[in-house]
TrEMBL record:
InterPro entries: MPAB/Lcp_cat_dom. One of its GO terms (molecular function) is oxidoreductase activity. Pfam families: MPAB_Lcp_cat (PF09995). Residues 16-247 form the ER-bound oxygenase mpaB/mpaB'/Rubber oxygenase catalytic domain. It comes from the Bacteria. PANTHER family: BLR2777 PROTEIN, ER-BOUND OXYGENASE MPAB_MPAB'_RUBBER OXYGENASE CATALYTIC DOMAIN-CONTAINING PROTEIN. This is DUF2236 domain-containing protein.
């Protein structure tokens, strides 16, 4: 539809073409594992969240935020960002060792969460066979300075390419540890609460997703958690096979699942707005 609002990123962005990929779900679980290794950040989640009682709801709220900021209108994205900033501004956490009380919207904590997400999305997508050139990968990182702004960060303080992202992780690594909260997240991701009748399904399907997401973490994360993982080359082969299988499911079937942001964007902008990997590099 001519003149329709393309949103914050638009169909010409790397973000638009990548975020409809089904491997984003595994990347999201990887991000949770990585984020839990920052003690101050994970305490903010554990002390303010009911994720154990509402795991699916939390997952869908995160997916809805990513979908809205990627494929929604500019107004919808800004509104979603304002809602997140307002919630974060009201939340605090306490360091059990020092008694220090701090806001969960500290820039350093927001930056960690952001970088863990972007690194996870990019790493899983590329290793699973989603073709991105190095230049496109750098564009992806740069584009997400905009999503960082939405949650309250100064875009000028956020990595703008892969080299800056690597430098950030090298700088922050001394602050990382697998404390009791991270162990609880690990246990939760492997065995999320579910109805007794669904336990076999959880063991067959979900555990494989969680294990693959964990395996795709950087080696230093495995060392901190103290759980081994297959060699990186083996994990990459597993990611490629999983990506191949998931991408065989027709996109329109996948996009019928909630929250359906891609279908709404195609109605707003026309069928040519359909995200697809081959559109990159045009």
């Amino acid at each position: 539809m001519t003149g329709a609002d393309p949103g914050l990123f638009g169909p010409g962005s790397v973000t638009w073409q990548t975020h409809g990929d089904p491997m984003m779900w595994i990347a999201g679980v990887r991000a949770l594992y990585l984020q839990a290794l920052h003690p101050r950040a994970v305490r903010g989640v554990m002390q303010n969240s009911d994720f154990r009682r509402d795991a699916w709801g939390r997952l869908m709220r995160t997916a809805n935020f990513v979908g809205t900021t990627t494929y929604g209108t500019t107004e919808a994205a800004e509104r979603a960002g304002a809602r997140v900033r307002k919630i974060h501004s009201m939340l605090t956490a306490t360091d059990p060792d020092t008694g220090e009380r701090y806001g969960v919207d500290e820039p350093g904590l927001l930056l960690w969460v952001h970088c863990a997400e972007i690194d996870s999305y990019l790493d899983v997508l590329r290793r699973s066979g989603f073709r991105l050139t190095d230049a496109e990968a750098d564009r992806y990182v740069a584009e997400h300075r905009e999503s960082a702004r939405l949650v309250g960060l100064d875009p000028g303080t956020v990595p703008a390419d892969r080299a800056q992202l690597v430098a950030y992780f090298e700088k922050v690594r001394p602050e990382l540890a697998a404390g009791p909260e991270a162990r609880e997240v690990d246990d939760f991701l492997l065995r999320p609460p579910t109805h007794p009748l669904l336990v076999p399904l959880r063991e067959v399907l979900w555990r494989r997703v969680a294990q693959l997401a964990y395996a795709s973490l950087p080696p230093y994360a495995h060392e901190l958690y103290g759980r081994p993982a297959p060699a990186p080359a083996t994990v990459t082969r597993q990611l490629r096979l999983t990506g191949l299988l998931l991408r065989r499911v027709p996109a329109r079937v996948r996009w019928q699942l909630p929250p359906k942001h891609i279908l709404r964007a195609m109605v707003r902008l026309g069928p040519d707005a359909r995200p697809a990997p081959y559109k990159l590099g045009r």
